[in-house]
Every structure is written in C-alpha cells, then in structure tokens.
Amino acid sequence: MGIDPWIMVALVANIAGYAVYLRALRRDLVEPNRASWLIWSIGTGVEAATYAAVNPRALQTIVLLVSALACILVMLGIWRRSAWASPSRSETACIVASLGALVLWLGFRDAFWAHMLVVAAVPVSFWPTWVAARADPQRERSPAWGLWTIGDLATLLVALGVAHGRSVGELAYPIVELASHAAVWGLVLWGTRRRSARALTATAIAERFRVGTNHLGKAVFANTAIREGARLFPFTGPRLRAARVPQQLLGNSDRYVQVTPDEYMGPSGRIDDLVNHSCDPNAGLRFADDGVWLVALRDIAAGEEVAWDYSTTLSESNWHMLCQCRAPECRRVIGNFAGLPPERQEWFRAKGVVAPYLRRRDDTTLPDASPSVAVGAGKASIGF
User: Fold this and answer.
1) HSE-CB for 40 with a 13 A CA cutoff
2) Could you give the CA distance from residue 366 to residue 357 in angstroms, rounded to a whole number?
3) Which of 14, 237, 321, 329 has the least CB density, counted as fewest CB within 10 Å?
4) Which domain holds residue 168?
5) What pLDDT does 370 receive?
C-alpha cells in the first residue's frame, strides 16, 4: 500500500515550516512568544513520546518527533537570545492551564477525555502568541505559519479519509490545530496589509519632509510650511520589554522610545528614527488610539528642522544624554521627565505630548522599572 500523498504534504509542510522559522529566528526576523513555545515544546515532546510507544513504525511518529525536536530548538534559540523577564499574568495562566491539561492527560484512564483535554489546551497555548501578533504582527512575520496551516489542512484531510463513522471528537485536534495556526497566519497577513497601506503614505511624507544633515548628523526637515497641531507622521516599530532592549547602544543603533515603565518602541527603519531632540521642540509625540504620532507644537516653517523633547516619554532614571541642540533653553543634560521643571512638565501635559504613563503629576516619581541600559529615550542619537 502506497503512502497517502496528503501525509507527505503534511510532513514536508511541517518540516519546511520549522526550517523557515528557525532560519528567521537565527536572523532575528521574528520575535516569538516564550510562553507559547515553552508549552509547545513540552506538549509536542509528550505527545511524540506517547505516540511513538504505541505506533513506533508509523509515519506520523516521525512527523511528531521532528516537530518536538524543532519546537525544542526554537525554544532554546528564544531563551538564548533574550534576557530573563517574568511572564505576564495571562502568560502564566496559559502555561499553568496547558501544562496542567498535559498532566491530567497522562493520568487519565479514559482515552477520549484525555484527548479532549489536549484539544482544549491548544488554543490556550496559542493565546500568548495571538496577543503578541495582534499587538505587533511583525513579531511573527514568517511564511512558516502558512506552511504549518497547509500541513494541518493536509493532516485533517488524512483524518477525514480514515474517519469512516468515527466520532467528531477524534477530528477535534487537527481542526483546532488548523484554526490556531491559521489565526496567526491571518494576523501576520493583516499586519503586512496594514504595513503596505502605510507604505502608500510614504510618498506623501517624502513630499512634506526630507532627511538632511545638521551639526549632529542626520536630521529631518520640513519641505513645506506646517500648521500648529498638524500630524506630521507616525512613530512605529516593534514593542519590546525593557529587559529585551540591547545594552550599550550608541550612534545609529540608539533608536528606542520608552512607552511604558517597562516597554520600549524599537527602530522602524523609517524617517521617525531620525528625528532629533531639542530642548525647545517644535513637535512632540502624541499617543492616540490609532498609534503614536509626531505632531506640530507650533507653526513650522519650510526648511526648518523637526525635533521633539526626548524627556517627554522617559522615566528611566539611569539614562542621561549630553545635549547639543543649541537652543537658547538647552538643558545641557537630558534625563527623565521628572527632571524637568514643574512648569515645563505642565506645558507638555497641556500640549498632550507626554507618554500616557507620565501624564499624572504623581506618575513622574515612578520607581525605575527598567534595567540600566545605555539607550536613548528617542529614536535618534546626538551623533552618527
């Protein structure tokens, strides 16, 4: 009897998916969620070992063993590349629930309900990745999710072909796996489409602004006159926990904006990375429902450099930058928002260009919740 071609499709698609994902991980093109991959590593390992004991010569055993090994390699790669950070409450809940289901699965005498426990644990294990991909689809931008979805579809077709009157419960696992992988793939495609739509506005941004040089290096200048209150362009980039921000960054690498006490926005590779600091800024960052926008704090003349005050997003107490903005009001040393004079803090608050977690007066005394990293508060450095 020949091998079902759908089994071969499932095998090739799954192996190819892991190969693509591992390559992307080595090149830092993806930022996987550690909680999900920890669950998957343990879950696929237990599943592969159990299945191999019952069906040692089955082709599916090879697929499961390869998947388990690949999951473990991805997990080890993730943990090697990241600093330790405690899982969030939702991640902790997902880990406990998923691993608890696996323990019950191993101890259950009723095979059907043991199987259903694992089925229930699948969407729980995917939840941290869904949340991360929804917040920033670029974290999971990899063709691997499409390949895994195709592999799951082939597996489901195989299961349907041999079902012959079996209960729907036996098809639950491949159905849920297919839906879970497809959901991540959909989020990635949705994020790519949004990015393409944003790219359409790049022409308009290029018409209004240009990248030039000043006494510090690269800078952004207005090509046309801009009215006070106008949106200039969005600040974008991956969201990173403070513990994941690379340390000892200088020059071109110093492209991070603090957005919460323990979260930063990383470099986008676009014009927003190049906006310099000024102690007398003509622009500021406004955190809105549709993103983070640089807005004009006053009328900006054609040919004028666009700049904002880095301190308006910063609570990191151990970060300082020698300032060379040459404004008459230059503070010489740039630090966190709490270091600004009270009247200056209130002026920025009135303009609506203070990070949300710093908007209340008592928020300026937040304890330092991030590590002592030599990174800039903004997405441009004083020297290049």
Assistant:
1) 28
2) 9
3) 329
4) 5-199
5) 37
